Amino acid sequence: MHFIFVLEYDILMSYAVTAIVVSFMVKMRKTMIRITMISAAVIHLFFILLVFLGVLTNSIGDELAAVPKEVINLYQHGSWMNQIQYRFLHFWELRTEAVFVIPFNICMFLIGVLLVRIGAFDNNSKGINIRKRMMKAGLLVGLPLNLLLFVPGGYFDFPVRYVFASILSLGYMGAVSFLIERFQAFSLWSVLEKVGKMSLSCYVLQNVLSSILFYGWGLGLGGHPRSFFVIFVWILICLFQMLFAALWLRYFKMGPMESARKRLASLAIRKNIKKDLKM
Question: Residue 8's closest CA among 103, 66, 69, 82?
Fold first, then answer.
């Protein structure tokens, strides 16, 4: 629904498939999880290497970067129904990335599982030391690698997005933990915690708001020549989401999307129980 009605670059479908696959793996032994994680990483790195070599030889670089004029016109001047029709008619073409990143997602999900199991997020000296190592390694290695994005020609666009960014994310986790431990009384943490509790709702909300602001059927702000304007709008959207999450959780226990997901899951469980009872 999010892909069809809101955004063609939706990642939720890929995450959903990944979560189903990983749900069968989390009960495995730590050794098997590591083997599966490494195997998924090798498959993903092989794909990235092929793309990188293609970009270096200029055999696929232009195709990856090019956006057809019809698509640009669709989002600048087309109606919402035109965009929905486009996503329907080009479903598999637009979902190539969502399938392509599944091995990468599996690897990242399992890294998260292992980090939890080794106590990386525990509130003790062991957890603090692990998070410090994550911060140092993630920032010292990941930051320089991500700066390769600014190399002209777009040669490192795919490696940065699908490999180096994940290394930097470990540094982010460690850095945020370090800041929270050092400045525990900072009121911003409680606000961000509420956004985290409503992460699915906020993800969908930011895409809905951005569609209204930037697409032609909305305010048509897309294609603005000044990059600082886009950053300014992004900051406003972030502030609005923080306010929305804080106000919503005053009256409800979960966000709207989280509540809907829980209710749908409960209905599915009840139906399965009824089928088992009949059998």
Answer: 82
pLDDT band at 65 (very low <50, low <70, confident <90, very high): low
Contact 146, 168 (CB under 8 A): yes
Poorest-pLDDT segment among 40-54, 140-154, 180-194, 221-235: 221-235
Q: How far apart are CA 28 and CA 191, in angstroms?
A: 36
For 17-58, the pLDDT digits (tens) are 999 999 988 888 888 999 999 999 999 999 889 888 887 777
* Token digits of residue 272: 């399965």
Angle (CA) 5 9 10, round 5°: 65
Structure tokens at 249: 């959780």
What are the tokens at 278? Answer: 């009949």
Among candidate residues 59, 61, 141, 158, the one with its CA nearest the CA of residue 101: 158
Taking the chain, what is the end-to-end CA distance rounded to the nearest angstrom?
33
Tokens 């930037």, located at residue: 214
Quick one: three-class SS letters along 60-128?
Answer: CHHHHHCCCHHHHHHHHHCCHHHHHHHHHHCHHHHCHHHHHCHHHHHHHHHHHHHHHHCCCCCCCHHHH
Per-residue pLDDT, 63: 53
Question: What is the spatial distance between Cα 279 and Cα 275, in angstroms, rounded to a whole number?
Answer: 6
The rounded distance, in Å, linking the Cα atoms of 184 and 14 is 35
